[in-house]
Design brief:
412 residues, alpha/beta, 7-stranded mixed β-sheet, 10 helices, binds S-adenosyl-L-homocysteine
Amino acid sequence: MNMNKTIILRKGKEESLGRFHPWIFSGAIHHTEGDEPLEEGDLVEVLSSNGRFLAIGHWQIGSIAVRVLTFRHQLIDQSFWQRRLAAALDVRRTIGVADSKDNSIYRLVHGEGDNLPGLVIDIYGTTAVMQAHSVGMHVCRDEVAKALKEVMGESLKAIYYKSETTLPFKAQLGQENGFLWGESTDDVACENGLAFHIDWLKGQKTGFFVDQRDNRSLVERYAKGRKVLNMFCYTGGFSVYALRGGAELVHSVDSSAKAVELVNANVQLNFPGDNRHEAFAEDAFKFMETAFAEGKETGNSKSSNGKWPYDLVILDPPAFAKHKDALRNALRGYTKLNAKAFEKIQPGGILFTFSCSQAVNKEQFRTAVFTAAAMARRKVRILHQLHQPADHPVNIYHPEGEYLKGLVLYVE
Ligand code: SAH
């Protein structure tokens, strides 16, 4: 590995590295040294202004210029990747999601949370879906795949690489999605004993929202006898859990027709012929406004007074703020969406509401939901405060890794 490329930081810019923060912003760099010019994805050694070794990481063009792999002087070789992946697997065994009889879906590597910035690996049965979010991880993909094979052993049959949309377009890497090793058409994996089709070829993210596993279980606990509305359902995870929990009726809504197909297939896989479920391809805001409005029925359900029948509502929208600049609009969006749910949900209803925007913090989200409750003039109690599950760990030195937050609310 070419390690003769060095980055020297400006004076005083080594402080965050002293606190093990794994990012170096471009503004912190004084100059670079090396026989050849830096290329995106290069491994670089990072030194302080007075020449002290600080870290080794991947360099690329952009505001986050270096993603740190180690704060020790060590080789980034095959054995390095193997040790890091083995450590990640150990954590998944500890929390009980790996090597489990009734669970074969979990996140093995969660970027900075596993000291592997720029890398995501999700396990779906015998297939691993690997995603690079940095050029450096893209450059190392074959080494990482080899280490992954070693670490997972017999339990793995294929590694699918899905980085077409997660790498900087400008780097012109010409990357294509495809199998790095093996091949598999077995797209069914299981989460807490429920089966799901995973569309790693065309689906969002790596094919499934692994991060809602624990929150889906909580929905199952509350679902008995309830009429459930699962907004932004995608593959229908929440819907399938609600059905197992004994819901009286479950309606799933997503603007994408493909998502509606997926949710129907997943319901069919677990509860064939179950007519408690129905899915609608419709815009969320429009559905919330018009479903059960005077004279309009939805599916097999009737509401004579023009009110929603739902007493368990899940709002899990896509990230409204992808960047800090979009924050104000995003908060307004969350308020508007939640206000509509508060306005319409049955008395005694339970609202599960989420935000997966990294740019929106817990307090801001809570304020947006609080504003919504006040607008709808409902009495609301917080029952649970939710977050991402343990296989999406947050590196304590990298609080930016905390992104998923949710509230479970009791609406009087
Ligand atoms: N709850 C899901 C994940 C949701 S991802 C799960 O547990 O897996 C967000 C989903 O919102 C996507 O499927 C997307 O198609 C859908 N979506 C985005 N904008 C929408 C809108 N305006 N109305 C309805 N659905 C929307």
